[in-house]
Amino acid sequence: MLLLFITFCSAISLTELGYWNGVKRIRREFPYLENNVYLDYTASGLHQISQLKDFYYDVSKKLYGNAHSISPSSINTDTVVKQMRKRILKYFNANPKEYDVIFTSGATEALKIVGENFPFTPASVFLYLLQNHNSVLGIREYASHANATWGYFTEEDPEQQWKSVLDKLNKLQTTNVTHHLIAFPGEDNFNGAKFPLDWICKINSLSNNKHKFHVLLDAAALVPSAKLDLTKYHPDFVSISFYKMFGFPTGVGCLIIKKEVAKELKISYFGGGTVVMAAADRDWKVFPDYLPPKYEAGTLNFLGILGLKHAFNHFPNIDIIHKHTYALTRVLFTELNKLTYSNGTKAVEIYGNHNHSTYENQGPIVTFNILNSKYKYNGVFPKHVPLLTVNEFLAKKNIHVRVGCTCNPGSCLNSLNVTSLAAAAVTNPNTPVDTTLEGKQYGAIRVSIGYPTTIGDIRKFIRAIKEFIKMVE
């Protein structure tokens, strides 16, 4: 029986912790992992070979064409697209009377659709959690163009921060209903910290007859390893990238949107199938009554959407994935946290909720820096070993991780205790992941675990880090 030593000093089996013994069987679906240790699942999941075989068999036996017609091939595509909208809603337990699915190229386009079409006015407020992806931060550009107010909130007593905003809004003299947007991720893509989904109902409860608060949940990092139940939680918008779940198809994501909220959105652009008919010589167009096509400009990635059918068919049970990835995350954190230099000083600095982690508050990510063994607080030496040095060492061993701020500057700089002003002063656009400031590094090493990850992968990674620490001591 495989045993590991947990920080609370009790030896337990990996299986008891949640390790999925079936991973040995499913690893046969990933022959390209031979001689590779892939630990970058938050960036992209990996495809199964059987999944691709089923997809290629499908497209070799049946003709699929552009859906914007009534030819047989178009009808084939239209049928699959409708089936996949239903399947996505069913997978996330979303009531089809309440929600609809808009296909996008990924979570970023889903977030962009919200920003472009949200009814911001000068009286509106856009708030986002400090630890958000760049693609969420970008929405503030649309808020700014509408002269709306934007800002961030922190995870320390967020309800008080929201109520403070509402109190200020209630003092304003308004005649029309004003719409406000609050955004947060289900999981921090930098360090894996999870945020309470019950924030959703608490934000919705702020609404009154003058001010409507809408919730945008960025679920891109959450759903590859955790269940999202949209009958339990009711965000107005949910952004998803399917390649993060399945590896293939790439270039397909979606925006799950409340139908009632969609009625409040403006339409900032039309093109292709987003209109039934438009005039070229005057300002006239007719939009379809059906919601999704209004925001799906151009031809959908219909073969990619077909690929989702086979991806869902081969995706393991999400509860098994959740337990399995959490078990390996605990092992990885525990082993990294024990590493020291020969003089007894700690060798790594780890970020996230790992010291008090549960299934609910920590995802399958361990983000860390390797401390410089010569580090002195007088600033003579940098605090951390340069990221590119670590990455180069791991790459030579075919170990795949991600270094930098992983497109999440709020979480990254907050974890590293670096201010955004200080980072801006030294950021080099050509080498952003290797910037240091007063001995502090602008970035970290992110290790993210997926359902194909085995305990063998974790052991190889730990051995490599131990070897590196000895080398730089």
From TrEMBL:
GO biological process: molybdopterin cofactor metabolic process
Domain Aminotransferase class V: start-end pairs: 37-460
InterPro entries, per database record: Aminotrans_V_dom, PyrdxlP-dep_Trfase, PyrdxlP-dep_Trfase_major, PyrdxlP-dep_Trfase_small
One Pfam family this sequence matches: Aminotran_5
GO molecular function annotations of the record: molybdenum cofactor sulfurtransferase activity
Alphabetized SUPFAM superfamilies for the sequence: PLP-dependent transferases (SSF53383)
PANTHER family: MOLYBDENUM COFACTOR SULFURASE, MOLYBDOPTERIN COFACTOR SULFURASE MOSC
The protein's name in its UniProt record: Molybdenum cofactor sulfurase putative
Organism: Entamoeba histolytica
